[in-house]
């Protein structure tokens, strides 16, 4: 079943009507060639609900739909995960955003670290973030997410630490961190509902001074194993572990 995102104002619960606008109109009519009566899923990208509806009419500039029922079962992870990704080279960030959304990340925050090779000027950074946000929305549609994860503007390492300072769980994979038993202990202690911040370094990793600064801010270094992982692999590894742990804990409850 196809899923589309709309603004909350386009959902009229009282009249059981949903209006689809923008680029999805052409996609539904001319690419998917959908017909009146076909069922689609609609989300507003915010409340976590799926609005199941049928197509009533295919207008020139909108698609009118009839609301059939609302699904509120938990598709989203029971905790909000914030991926703070050190800016990588070339187009790796696009793949990182896509896979992070598929794995359940709530937000992606690009971080300019000391070893980040990529240096983005303000105008170029805004264009990149806009591109990454579009990728996040497409990935949310593909993976049947009920919310559209937000890609924040590029932050410095200090700004990123300030941004997540109130979060109860803050993790940073580091090759000199303790053994796997410590990582396992931390993950097993996670509880649904906790906000979790995950720092991932760029290709060159974090400088020792950055690790020290992070630890002073309450960020806990952990290991991802004996092998050195690429920046695009490290975040996906930890997000996968978190997804497995959090969904397993939620199912047990």
Protein model, in words:
With 253 residues, this protein is an alpha/beta fold. The protein has two domains: 3-71, Ribosomal Protein L25, Chain P; 81-252, 3-Layer(aba) Sandwich (Alpha/beta knot). The protein has seven helices and 13 strands. The protein has helices at residues 23-31, 92-102, 122-142, 157-163, 180-188, 208-216, 231-252; strands at 3-5, 11-12, 17-20, 39-43, 50-58, 63-71, 81-86, 107-112, 150-151, 155-156, 169-173, 196-200, 220-222. The strands form two sheets. Strands 7, 8, 9, 10, 11, 12 and 13 form a seven-stranded parallel β-sheet that branches. A six-stranded mixed β-sheet has the order 1-4-5-6-3-2. β5 (50-58) and β6 form a beta hairpin. α2 (92-102) runs parallel beside α3 (122-142) and α2 (92-102) runs parallel beside α7 (231-252). The protein is elongated, with a radius of gyration of 20 Å. The mean pLDDT is 91.
Detail the topology: elements first, then pairings:
Elements: E1 3-5, E2 11-12, E3 17-20, H1 23-31, E4 39-43, E5 50-58, E6 63-71, E7 81-86, H2 92-102, E8 107-112, H3 122-142, E9 150-151, E10 155-156, H4 157-163, E11 169-173, H5 180-188, E12 196-200, H6 208-216, E13 220-222, H7 231-252
Parallel strand pairs: 1-4, 7-8, 7-12, 8-9, 8-10, 11-12, 11-13
Antiparallel strand pairs: 2-3, 3-6, 4-5, 5-6
Outline:
The protein is α/β, with parallel strands linked by helices and 253 residues long. The protein has two domains: 3-71, Beta Barrel (Ribosomal Protein L25, Chain P); 81-252, Alpha/beta knot, CATH 3.40.1280. The protein has helices at residues 23-31, 92-102, 122-142, 157-163, 180-188, 208-216, 231-252; strands at 3-5, 11-12, 17-20, 39-43, 50-58, 63-71, 81-86, 107-112, 150-151, 155-156, 169-173, 196-200, 220-222.
